[in-house]
Write a structure and sequence with these properties.
Blueprint lengths: L1 H7 L27 H10 L5 E5 L3 H14 L22 E2 L3 E2 L1 H22 L3 E5 H4 L4 H12 L25 H8 L12
Parallel strand pairs: 1-4
Antiparallel strand pairs: 2-3
Helix pairs in contact: 2-4
Length: about 200
């Protein structure tokens, strides 16, 4: 955080400095001594004044995209990149996302940590802008961009997104063991994620 403070010291006082944290406990927070509440408290001590929370409702597609990126060795897609999507195996009893999870448990853990983050931000009185990928980014990223600009009270400028979706195929065409995954999620509250975009 010291480097961040040093880099921003020369910015105008009204400049906005944004940085991303993948707060899931086995991702970025695993590299810190903090849980979510401790991390938010540390950010407030560093004068962080607001948060933008990007959430993807379909956790199964999020997990699949992560596995596709790992297989591809590339986490971002730019126009002109090879659009071929590698097929992946998603072992429902042992999904690796920082550690190994049973699939339902991982989807629940993701939901639980979003709920925890929202509660911590509420208790801290830290204003937040909620961006939902499926509503604010997927069809047109400018929707989310304008929402964030309004939240930060800055005028939007014309933009052209430089990145594109890593996978827009149905999961049934990407997950080689889709029938096994479908059987595993059958009857669970996450079953809808199998066919939703």
């Amino acid at each position: 955080m010291c480097n961040r403070a040093q880099r921003t010291a020369k910015l105008p006082r009204d400049a906005h400095y944004l940085f991303e944290v993948k707060f899931f406990s086995t991702l970025d927070l695993a590299r810190t001594p903090y849980d979510i509440a401790g991390f938010v408290a540390m950010l407030q001590r560093q004068q962080v004044s607001s948060a933008v929370v990007l959430r993807r409702r379909n956790g199964l597609r999020r997990i699949a995209s992560t596995l596709i990126a790992l297989r591809r060795g590339k986490y971002q897609m730019r126009p002109g990149d090879d659009p071929a999507v590698p097929r992946i195996k998603l072992p429902p009893k042992s999904v690796h996302l920082g550690q190994k999870y049973e699939l339902n448990a991982l989807l629940q853990a993701i939901d639980d940590e979003y709920a925890q983050l929202e509660a911590v931000l509420d208790r801290a009185g830290l204003p937040r802008c909620a961006i939902v990928y499926e509503y604010d980014v997927q069809a047109d990223p400018k929707v989310g961009y304008c929402k964030i600009c309004e939240f930060l009270q800055v005028a939007p400028v014309p933009i052209k997104p430089a990145l594109q979706r890593i996978n827009d195929l149905p999961l049934s065409e990407v997950i080689v063991n889709f029938a096994e995954v479908r059987g595993h999620l059958a009857g669970s509250r996450f079953e809808w994620m199998l066919t939703a975009d």
